[in-house]
Amino acid sequence: MKIDNKRKYLSFLKFKRDFQKYGLEKVRSYELILHWLNNRLSRSQFLVLSGVIVGCSAGLAGVILKTLVHHIHNFITTKVHFEYQILFYVVFPFLGIVLTTSIVLTLFKGQDRKGIGAILYEIAQNSSIVSSVKMYSQIVQSAITVGLGGSAGLESPIAVTGAAIGSNFAQTYRLSYKERTLLLAAGATAGIASAFNAPIAGIMFAFEILLTGVVFTDFIPLVVAAVCGSLLSRILLQEDILFRFYTREPFNYKNVPYYLILGIATGLYARYFVIVSQKVEHFIKGLNMSRLRKAMFGGAVLSLLCVLFPPLFGEGYDTVKAFTNGNTHSIIENSFFRYFEIKEWTVIIFLVLVCLLKAFATSFTIFSGGNGGNFAPSLFAGGTVGYLFALICQHLGFSDVPVTNLVLVGMAGAMSGVLYAPLTAIFLIAESSFGYDLFIPLMIVSIMSYLIAKWFSPISPELKSLADQGKIFTNKHDKNLLFSLKTEDFIDRFSETVNENASIADLFELVKDGTKNIFGVVDDAKTLRGILTIDDVRPFLFSDTDTSASIIKIMKAPPAIIHQEDKPLEILQIFDDTGVWNLPVVDQNNKFVGFISKSSILMSYRQLLKDYSD
């Protein structure tokens, strides 16, 4: 045993010397140990260890953010009388968006890409390399936005934070693209698991939205990360902060018609929510204002909505819990509706307005400069729709309406339709309510809502802007791999050129002394005029044709021209359409840059695919 320990120690010292030889003397001790373990453990073993570390880190980040926002909300909503709450609703939501925008502009240099689309962008466009700044920037921004009343959720920022933690961990230990993507997803998984204390939902989130084609051996780090994040949440978070619902009714097959109707209702509401979000985003982008003024405008709109309808303040989970506990009157008593006689129609009108305005409150929060996501808003809205539907059924005289169950499955339905993630929604509510016997109604409502959403739009609206810009594909994983390639890497900038006024004899000398078989013909300003290949020159090599003539007579127009901003997938499509293997590349001024080869793109793609599959 002593000999084995001595060998391990000597091996550790050798690894340290090797590390210092590459100029990394300032490496931290724990990093040195992990590097050493990376060289001693098998790939699967190190990935499991990585899953534990990333999961605990991302879970802890989620716990800190949830706790911070919870205490801010408690201070604003429960420590003062209604009259002072009105003043707070006027000031704090406005202040939250303006402060977030100011911090983004000053501390983070205006970089405010947020939401789940930000994670997919990094996977597809940046080889799963996420800036280290995002390990804390999302926490700071979302804590200010949501903590001070922004009508958005913390789950998306937590997921982005976890993804950044996983990506930077993988970068530190020089892991491959596949492993980096896996740990990025593990961090996001742990973040979602800690936010909801729902590990299975976190895993489903990774499979549905972030990853495709994951093999069984890669499943383990995700599970480990989800368990670690969920355990930290369960251990450290107070009971009132946890996303938990203890009141529900047993499933009765006779209530299936309620769930069928609710599935349609949540699907249509999800589409309404998406349309409002898109309209508000377009409206705010079209405003001829600075980003700070847009934040002030959006903050003012949000403050007005929160004053009129306090349930729109913050995430809204307390309101949904009040629905499941039958404590609706306390919600209305904290609004201006307290001055009306509270009857059934009063509650119904109030909830209808809350449902309709939630989409506006969330959209103005996110698009005017705040930081948050659609997880919490979709759950809040779905729970409200479910409770509203239950009240209407009771008002119409139906008996034994499963009110609590309709609230719970309504949450899953709206989330499924807004985020295009039915499995995540199903397991999230099942885990959060201990309602595994509700799987049938959860599946009915979630799938119906998802199908309605897909009928209106085949891809998630949150990703639509990225897809429209050609920055990401959401249907095939191999296309996302292809989009991680950069056009700049395939341009042959040492391509040979010949002036359009040169003679055929001059071209002979270029062919004689050069190594290329294709040439760009340019004018004096280096503007592309045409191309020539060896095949075009060959007829003149062994003939008596006059070679003093200008090459303009034999040059030809290229079948197509590539621009520097074109994407690899677009370029491959052009190659397929033209049937050639080499095409010229020009800049915005039509200046010749070089040639690009179809084979070079395909070889790089095959290598990337091999690295991902190994």
Automatic annotation (TrEMBL):
<feature type="transmembrane region" description="Helical">
    <location>
        <begin position="375"/>
        <end position="393"/>
    </location>
</feature>
<keyword id="KW-0868">Chloride</keyword>
<dbReference type="Pfam" id="PF00654">
    <property type="entry name" value="Voltage_CLC"/>
</dbReference>
<feature type="transmembrane region" description="Helical">
    <location>
        <begin position="182"/>
        <end position="207"/>
    </location>
</feature>
<feature type="transmembrane region" description="Helical">
    <location>
        <begin position="295"/>
        <end position="313"/>
    </location>
</feature>
<keyword id="KW-0129">CBS domain</keyword>
<keyword id="KW-0813">Transport</keyword>
<keyword id="KW-0406">Ion transport</keyword>
<feature type="domain" description="CBS">
    <location>
        <begin position="555"/>
        <end position="612"/>
    </location>
</feature>
<feature type="domain" description="CBS">
    <location>
        <begin position="491"/>
        <end position="547"/>
    </location>
</feature>
<dbReference type="InterPro" id="IPR050368">
    <property type="entry name" value="ClC-type_chloride_channel"/>
</dbReference>
<dbReference type="InterPro" id="IPR000644">
    <property type="entry name" value="CBS_dom"/>
</dbReference>
<feature type="transmembrane region" description="Helical">
    <location>
        <begin position="405"/>
        <end position="430"/>
    </location>
</feature>
<feature type="transmembrane region" description="Helical">
    <location>
        <begin position="345"/>
        <end position="369"/>
    </location>
</feature>
<dbReference type="GO" id="GO:0005254">
    <property type="term" value="F:chloride channel activity"/>
</dbReference>
<feature type="transmembrane region" description="Helical">
    <location>
        <begin position="258"/>
        <end position="275"/>
    </location>
</feature>
<feature type="transmembrane region" description="Helical">
    <location>
        <begin position="46"/>
        <end position="66"/>
    </location>
</feature>
<dbReference type="InterPro" id="IPR046342">
    <property type="entry name" value="CBS_dom_sf"/>
</dbReference>
<protein>
    <submittedName>
        <fullName>Chloride channel protein</fullName>
    </submittedName>
</protein>
<feature type="transmembrane region" description="Helical">
    <location>
        <begin position="219"/>
        <end position="237"/>
    </location>
</feature>
<dbReference type="InterPro" id="IPR014743">
    <property type="entry name" value="Cl-channel_core"/>
</dbReference>
<feature type="transmembrane region" description="Helical">
    <location>
        <begin position="436"/>
        <end position="456"/>
    </location>
</feature>
<keyword id="KW-0812">Transmembrane</keyword>
<dbReference type="InterPro" id="IPR001807">
    <property type="entry name" value="ClC"/>
</dbReference>
<feature type="transmembrane region" description="Helical">
    <location>
        <begin position="86"/>
        <end position="108"/>
    </location>
</feature>
<keyword id="KW-0407">Ion channel</keyword>
<keyword id="KW-0472">Membrane</keyword>
<dbReference type="GO" id="GO:0034707">
    <property type="term" value="C:chloride channel complex"/>
</dbReference>
<dbReference type="Pfam" id="PF00571">
    <property type="entry name" value="CBS"/>
</dbReference>
<keyword id="KW-0869">Chloride channel</keyword>
<keyword id="KW-1133">Transmembrane helix</keyword>
